[in-house]
Give the backbone structure.
Amino acid sequence: MSRPPADPRHDPAVLRLERLRAGRVRPPRATALAASLEREGAAILRLRRALGDAGSAWGRCCPEELASGALPVACRAGVLTVAVADAAVRHRVDRWLRAGGQREVAAASRTPIRRVRLVIGRHA
């Protein structure tokens, strides 16, 4: 007597192959922008809160040729941290700050600014 052929769905090799195929399938991508926009909006609000009024004072006082390469990123305990694109921009911003720019920014800001710290490359 001959046995009927085994059901291929219950074969261990077929089951392993199906598990392997299921693991290789990528989940569908989210096409909605709402979550991404929500995260970016929250990041902007955090940065705005961290800077207080010092960020807008920097924007009003900083010369245009320097503003494109220098971005205020934090203001804590009277220290305004400004990210600059590279060493050349850092040098030009430092010269401007020493020539009275720091006093100008401190006077324009309601947030007290004792010092401006320049960092290269972060967020600039």
